[in-house]
Amino acid sequence: MSRRTFSVWDIDWLTVGLYFGLAILGWLMIYAAGYDPSAPTGLFDLDTRGGKQALFIGVSFVVGVAILLMEPQFFKTISYLIYGVVIFLLIGVMTYGAVTKGAMSWFILPGGFKFQPSEVAKFAACLALSTYLSGANVSMKNFGNAIMGMAIFLFPAMLIVLQGDPGSALVFLALMIPLFREGLHPIIYVLGIVFIALFISSLMYDPLTVIVILLLLAVVFSVMNLKNQGYWAAAYIVLLGLAIWFYPSYPVYVLSGVAAFLFVSLGFNFVAGKREITTFLIIAMMAMSAFSFSVSYLFNEVLEPHQQDRINVWLMPEKADRRGSYYNLRQSKLAIGSGGVWGKGFTNGEMTQGNHVPEQDTDFIFTVVGEEQGFFGAFGVILLYAVLLFRLTIIAERQRSKFTRIYAYGVAGIISFHLLVNVGMTMGLMPVIGIPLPLMSYGGSSLLSFTIMIAVLLRFDSQRLLVFR
Questions:
Q1: Are residues 229 and 286 in the same domain?
Q2: Taking the CB of residue 270, how many other CB atoms lie within 10 A of it?
Q3: Is the predicted pLDDT of residue 389 greater than 60, yes or no?
Q4: Mean pLDDT, residues 281-300
Q5: Burial 397-420 (b: 16+ CB within 10 A, else e)
Q6: Is the residue at 324 inside a domain?
Q7: Nearest to 60 by CA among 419, 391, 445
Q8: Domain check: are 353 and 435 in the same one?
């Protein structure tokens, strides 16, 4: 039977509790980040960021309640309209917006408040993608449908890149998760992982070194289906040893030798009638070699120095600016490590109170948790996020509606991407790309965006027994 009447008991209250738990913890950490022992202020003082965050939580609560009182079908009906409005805002901010941290991605509102359209764009893209994928005769096994689905979230991502904020644009890749759940071929994700590994390698090493490694790997694949594999294996071991020994002194000669060995093995494959292997390896090598050189060129000639420095901090800290972004990361690690097991106590963090970590109430809010609440506090926060993500997955899988399932996986993907990157970058495990910790970092745009995403999902889930495709 379908239920069309709305009851508060239909809401997933565990998710609501996790939402408020994280939002209130974030508010307290923001207050602690701006706390001045010589001039203490109240938690609700609007002259402080802690007080403003309390106001943002109140506004988000009102918006969330309003969403829960609305008809869920309404959001699907106007999903493309919301998407269009957000695209218009993303274009408009490049003309009428203000530059913050090198990106023109903010509208300045009365009262000193700022609005970042890229935060709401995540919700709009997730909603539009869900509407499209749940349409009749739309299948991820159809190449055209798959391209259209990816274009829905890649287009706003491209506009955000043009604003000078590539970090926020990367978040949209999280929407590949619902595509996978709906049947997009796994080979797409395998190729994605390969090119990510190639991208990182091309940043860490010169393209010639990367190509030699690729050629050696290609040799392995080329000889796997040949006869007399024992002889080929022995020859490959000799080739590998010579390559390792002579490459530092004679890189060009080693490249030529490995390439010659590869073409010999490909020739044997061609004669044996295995032309598919030959064609595939030649095309793959050409594509990956071109990609490696392109990445190197992009990094050295296109990226701004501060963008290069962010990547160096992550992959090559010895090349990073010790007084710039590397200093921020070093201070972040020191703050988290200084908390020990139990932490120094609320508002008692010396590095936090001394403003030793820049952007501590926004991008590096997790350092406040680590210093003042210690290992167990940081673990508890991560555990709360893990439970929230697990709960969102349960909500997704219990849906009868394909639309709601896709939307739920989109929300879970976006939150998990933010969590992984934000926490990782405070410890040097991820590049510092400046994305907030969901529900905890200071900022009305971010909090409101995540509130809308979660509230809309809860409203959809409240009528999970009613299928609206």
A1: yes
A2: 14
A3: yes
A4: 87
A5: eebebbbbbbbbbbbbbbbbbbbe
A6: no
A7: 445
A8: yes
